[in-house]
Amino acid sequence: MKELFRRFSPYFKDYKLAFGIAIIGMILASAGNAGVAYMIEPIMNKIFLEKNESLLYLVPIGIIIAYTAKSIGKYVQVYFTSYIGQDIVRRIKDKILGNTLDFDIT
Prior knowledge:
The protein is an all-alpha fold and 106 residues long. Helices cover 87% and strands 0% of the residues. It has one domain (19-101). The protein is rod-shaped, with a radius of gyration of 23 Å. The mean pLDDT is 89.
């Protein structure tokens, strides 16, 4: 396993910024998931049990914000991880093609 990481580490070094952005997307998606789960308790306790109607107007806005953050984070994460993977595969294919074209014909 160590040999595998050593062999492919030069390909990953060029994508530090993309990895960072993908991690930010993961954090944003996780925060959106946690936000939705965190809002369930106030919805149940304050709106349904205490009959607080003022929160009835704020909860949909909070849900929309949480799901928007979750969706944006998930999109950023998937986009950048796919970009990294596909670009590494492209670079390896180009290297293999270059080596193949440099072979002697005879």
